[in-house]
Every structure is written in C-alpha cells, then in structure tokens.
Design goal:
- The protein is mainly α.
- The chain is 56% helix and 0% strand.
- It contains 19 helices and no strands.
Amino acid sequence: MNKEKKYGVWDDFFQSEFSPENYKIFSDAAISRAQIFMSSVQSGLVQIDDGLTTQSFNPELDQWVSENDDLLTELVRDIQSHIRSVVEFSLPAHDERQIMFKDAAEGLRFYQMEKPQGYKATFVIPMFAHDIGRLLEGRLYAPLNNPHDQWTPHSKFSFLMLQKILEQPQYQKIPKALKDHYLYAVLAHSGDNGVSYMSRAVQTCDRMQLIGAEGFYRALSYGTCLMDADIKYPEDPHYKYTLPNMFEHQSVLSILEYCSRNMRQNIGTVHASWQHRIAVENVVLLKAACEGNDELTNRLFAPECDIDCAFGPQKGRIDATVLHDADLLYACSKVPEVKWSPYEVASVAVRAIEMPMGAAKLSDSMKKSIHRAVGDMSDVERKSLFLMMSLADQFRAEQDEIDQGVSLLCEADQNGYVRTIAKAIRGYTNHAPVAVVCAAPFHLGSVSPSYEL
C-alpha cells in the first residue's frame, strides 16, 4: 500500500528542504511551464481575452459551470486542503491569514459588489489561490544562501502549483478553457494589467492589499522583516521630486507613497467605492507618518504642497477626492502621548505583525530587522510611527469585521464553491487594537465614495 502523500500533489515541492539544486529544479519547471503557457496565449492557442464587463459571452462555459457546481466545490476544498497542509512554511506578509482570509474575503467582496455572470463568477477560485507560490517560497527560504530579492517571481510558482492540482484525474472534466482562465489569472496577477476579466478582477482585489492598513503591515512584514528595508522615509533628496520603480524601494513609507500615486487602473464600477476607501486610509497613514515633521511633509507630499518644481512621472499628484477625504478622516485622530523607547515601539510593531490569527511568527532575525529599523528613526519619527500603527490597527480591525460580514452573507450563496470559500473565513477572529488614539471613534459607515465622519 502506498503511503499517502503528506502534501498531496505538492509533495515533491515541500518534502525537500532548500538546496541550490532543489531550488533550480522547481524554478526551471515553473519558468518553463509558464513560458509555454504564455506563448500559447500570445499565439492565440489559449483564448482568454473575454472583455472586461461582468457579462459573459460564452454560453457553453456558463452552462458547464451551472451544471458542475459540485466539482468546482470539490476543487476549492482540494486547494484549501493543500494550502492548510503547508501553511507551517509561510512567511510574514503572505501567510495563512493573508491567503485563507484576506485574499478570499476581498474576492468575495468583489463578487458581491460586481456580480459577475456565468463562468466569470468563478474568478473567486484563482483569487484565493493566486499567492500559493508564496508558500513554496517559505519552504525554500534561506536568506543567506538564496537571497529573497533574487528569487523567481512567485506568480510562476503559484501557476505551477495550481497546474499540478488541475492536472489530477478528478478534474479532467473541467473544460480546458476554464482551467486556462484560472491559470492565466494566477500567472498574470503581478505586474501590468491582464487581458481577461478574471485576471483583472484578481489584480484589483490583490492591489487593495498594497495600500491602507494591509499594505502597511505587508510592507513592514515583507520589506523590513524579509528584505531588511527601512521604515522611515529615505533621506535621499531626490524623493521630493521623483520615486524609483516599485521593486526598488527600501522603505516602508516610500512604497506606501508609491502605491498611493501609481496604482494601475482597476476594474469594478461598484467596487470602486471600496477602492476609494482604502486609498483614503492609505493617505491617512502617510499623513500620520509626517505628524510633527514639516520637513518630511514637504518632501513626501511635495506635489500636494504646491511646491513649484518639476516632478517625475511617478511623483504625480494624489487624486483630489482621495486627498480631501483623507484630510477629513485624519482630523479625527490625535497624536498619542507616548514616550517609549525604541525597544518598546519595535516590540509593538512585532506584536502587531504576529497578533492576528493565522499570521506567521517572526524569526529572531526578522525581529532584529524591526528593532534595527525602529532604532534608526528619530524620536519624532518613532512617535509618528506609533500613531501610524495605532491608526492602521484600527483600520485593520474594522476591515476584518467587515470581511467577516461579507463571508457570512456568502455562506448563503447559491454557488457551493462560493459557500466553501466563505466558510473557511469563519475561523479567523478579530484582534484587539494595539492602542486607541482617536479623539472620537471613526465612523466609516457603509462602503461609499466618501466618508461619514
């Protein structure tokens, strides 16, 4: 009798610890398969360009989806089971909480708000699975021997891992066209806008976690913990006039600014109100980072300060309505009266990263990176960081509660695959805020283009 594989079809990936040889094998396989697939897309052999509206124009695929809900539900459970089998290897920023809770919830929110039709509704499947390649990164994590910034893009690992699941005999019945949509959405999620509805929906949802509270903690976890980046804004005077490309940032604050100014165009007529909300919260966090620091305000918000100079294309003005609502929301906050040591502030940051259910624990070296980055800040910068963390923690707690509400509604959905994704969210409880710093409670109200204060 064959022994059951501990990691299912991912067993070959996760049984082996890091070695240069193993990494090259997995990397070469992911790159090769991804290149073959994308070549088929570009040549037209794989057809995934289906228009960017919620309406479907593929009645045959729509009918198959409507008649095979049980098989799609089985696929969701299978992916979830594979994820749970390897979450022990997850790294900060892309852990169990991120994949099973936040990715899933954002997909369900878009699903509820936009109501995609027919087979397009199944985009929620690649949405909650698009970052599974991050789990393989965690299994092969070896910062001294395999620097994280030199890795194969995780989207290719995600593509390879989802392809392995879809190749199983029980999924032979799934039309190749639907599998292609899933694989393309996963492979194309990071970078320029994709050409299919599913890929654009996945990208839109994923980008909501680059900004706001989730974006801040992701930047802190990924940038500082894994890449040893700074938290404080760069001292380089050029940042007043221009910003580097996205993957060249070595600062938590500068990457949040970059994403505020350079968000690629997203889809979602109704979901746009949620996108606006998170964009506003992101600017509120940047304002908190500048509290009591006029010099930083004049550099970070130079275009908005009407400073007469030529700005680079990546230092464009923040949307006026976003800035207006951020000013109103920030007026509700106050500077916390704390006189904490660098060690105490860094300890709060570590707790905030590790506290939510499903979050990955930090290694000693990751904690040292946080303490180093906080120690490099001035007293004014640390005080502003504490305000920033306090606001981010409140935003995050409120969003977690909203996400739980979204999942509860989706547990009554007509589609079993949607109900299955929603039920997996139920176990992720809210966390207590690090500190309360509001002069009055924020009253965010329902999702709308502006704030009710």
